[in-house]
């Protein structure tokens, strides 16, 4: 399991709520004591689809929440009509503290930095081994976003029937990433879906990947149709397919060990703006280098001549390949054509 202590400096991240959401442990009693706990599965034009007591309930933000965003993965308190019946609308009166936030930086079309998913544990970076060709720079940018958000990255390398995984894995070997290699026929009938689910058990996993890499094929294999509680989402949005830009949380089928898990599909997230990233947070994912960075000048980007990491590596405290990988990741913060 991941460590939650990483970002204690962030005021929107404190302890992880219990599995079913939690009531704040404050001395003042919460205003809506009768509220039910809900999990936000998707958001569409201000309407949240929430899982409340096993039912999907459509809700909107109560006025008292003001401008606070409610995002997929949020644990919320819901009041009002919780029947889930057609045309009913409940109200979200509270958003519980988030254990993690995955952000997207402002881009040309959207001037605001936004939280896109709350409370995730890992980021599955879905990349095809061919058709389309892997884009290492995009993988690197996803890795930086994951490290910054405190999510464990997981490489999912698809279409292994078309090309071997070896060369790509070599590039990432110094990072010691967890990975899984899949191919369509093995996802449908074989062992690959089980192998991926095994890495997602008991976790909330956000899937990202650009168009055509086989993300839909993957998610469909992980979550059989009957498990898609959000089949109702289509009824709610009136669309045959989930085509909003919001993420969509889907429950993994229950395992024999009783551990569940969620996979969050993100049709709108193909890359991340990385303007908000702080090198000091990314370097936390490199414990062998983090210590050496204590000797760096304030605000070091770890690419300057007076960066202490060169000496740290020369003294044998860490592998040169690790520093090389860290610097490559940090360098992806600069936007380039094609990002
Ligand atoms: N050869 C091969 N093709 C695959 C594999 N997985 C998926 N595909 C094919 O690749 C194409 C894209 O797959 P999708 O699952 O739709 O990919 P996606 O990432 O969801 O793409 P968008 O829907 O555009 O976002 C489809 O024609 C799939 O059948 C695989 O393991 N091997
Ligand atoms: Zn430095």
Map the helices and strands.
Elements: E1 36-44, E2 47-52, E3 55-61, E4 75-80, E5 90-95, E6 101-104, E7 114-118, E8 122-128, H1 136-149, E9 152-158, H2 166-172, E10 178-181, H3 184-188, H4 192-200, E11 204-208, H5 215-222, H6 231-237, E12 248-251, E13 262-265, H7 279-282, H8 287-290, H9 309-314, H10 320-331
Parallel strand pairs: 3-5, 8-9, 8-11, 9-10, 11-13
Antiparallel strand pairs: 1-2, 1-4, 2-3, 4-5, 6-7, 12-13
The structure holds guanosine-5'-triphosphate and zinc ion (ZN).
Describe what this molecule looks like in 3D.
There is one protein chain. A hairpin with a 2-residue loop joins strand 1 and strand 2 (47-52). The strands form 3 sheets. A 6-stranded mixed β-sheet has the order 10-9-8-11-13-12. The chain has a 5-stranded mixed beta barrel with strand order 1-2-3-5-4. A two-stranded antiparallel sheet has the order 6-7. It folds into 3 domains: 5-95, Nucleic acid-binding proteins (OB fold (Dihydrolipoamide Acetyltransferase, E2P)), CATH 2.40.50.140; 118-265, Rossmann fold (3-Layer(aba) Sandwich); 279-331, no CATH class. Helix content is 22%, strand content 22%. With 339 residues, the protein is of the alpha/beta class. It binds guanosine-5'-triphosphate and zinc ion (ZN).
Protein traits:
Rossmann fold; binds guanosine-5'-triphosphate; OB fold (Dihydrolipoamide Acetyltransferase, E2P); alpha/beta; 339 residues; 5-stranded mixed β-barrel; globular; disordered N terminus; binds zinc ion
